Amino acid sequence: MTYTELNGARCWVAEDGAGPPLVLLHGGFSDGREFTGNLAGLAGDFRVVRPDRRGHGRSPDVDGPLSQHVMADDTVALLSRLGGPARLAGYSDGAVVALLTALRRPDLVERLVLISGVFDPSGWLFAAEPGPDDVDDDPLAGMPAEVVDAYAEVSPDGRDHFPVVAAKIMALTAEELGITPADLARLDVRTLVVAADDDIIALEHTLALYRALPRGELAVVPGTSHDLLTDKPAAVTAVVAEFLTHDAVPTSIPVRRASDQPR
């Protein structure tokens, strides 16, 4: 566990285990600790690398807005240092960054896992927004105390900086991604799309993402919400582990993958 420089940003990176690299990208309002008790357990099979993205967790905030595009560039820099293609998994906003990374540098991504992410801001059913009086009255109004406490526990910027970074993270949900179905169709990386059956992402959007990816696979975890990593950690970890550790198998009645299988 150490700090490293990624495109001028000082970022905290935790590493556990040995084997092929697996990079995990956390969601907004969180950090690499988000994978404790779920995907971090894959350190038995992989060298699990958990960066705290700029402005999150132990990584200090930077001047100006946060950008998913910039964080994708940070991830490209991190993957380049790992030497060779790596497995890449992202959750929520981290899935957006993971997708942008793979579109930029598919040569650096051996397999891709997108958990409850979007390829266009329209996919969110709703997004976190500050209340109308938050700035004047309480900048933390409506924010769960555990989120603020988790940030304050490790952030080098301190608890008082949370409203600043929170506003930047909220703005990320509306950032223009510039990803088209044609872009997705050109992504020649085996990709697992994971969603909750009661997610804050429209199921139609998740299906559009899956259908646009030529090597896409789909898993919907029943009885879960957008917080599926906590709702059913064992179920999510099992489906991700299966995807990451096994090659795709021919299926007996293929439909969308019929052209990819031997006759």
Structure, explained:
InterPro entries: AB_hydrolase, AB_hydrolase_1, AB_hydrolase_fold. This is Pimeloyl-ACP methyl ester carboxylesterase. It holds the Pfam family Abhydrolase_6. GO terms for molecular function: catalytic activity. It is globular and about 55 Å long. By secondary structure, the protein is an alpha/beta fold. The protein has eight helices and eight strands; from the N terminus they run ββββαβαβαααβαβαα. It has one domain (2-260): Alpha/Beta hydrolase fold, catalytic domain (Rossmann fold), CATH 3.40.50.
For the biggest β-sheet, the strand order reads: 1-2-4-3-5-6-7-8
Q: Supply the number of helical segments.
A: 8
In the CATH hierarchy, what is the class? Alpha Beta
Could you describe the largest sheet, including whether it forms a barrel? 8 strands, mixed
Write the H/E string, N to C: EEEEHEHEHHHEHEHH
SSE arrangement:
Layout: E1 2-6, E2 9-16, E3 21-25, E4 47-51, H1 68-82, E5 86-91, H2 93-104, E6 109-115, H3 145-154, H4 162-172, H5 181-185, E7 191-198, H6 203-212, E8 216-225, H7 228-231, H8 233-245
Parallel strand pairs: 3-4, 3-5, 5-6, 6-7, 7-8
Antiparallel strand pairs: 1-2, 2-4
Helix pairs in contact: 1-2
Pfam family, one: Abhydrolase_6
Organism: Jiangella alba
Protein name: Pimeloyl-ACP methyl ester carboxylesterase
Short description:
An 8-stranded mixed β-sheet has the order 1-2-4-3-5-6-7-8, sandwiched between helices.
Key traits:
alpha/beta, 263 residues, eight-stranded mixed β-sheet, Rossmann fold, 30% helix
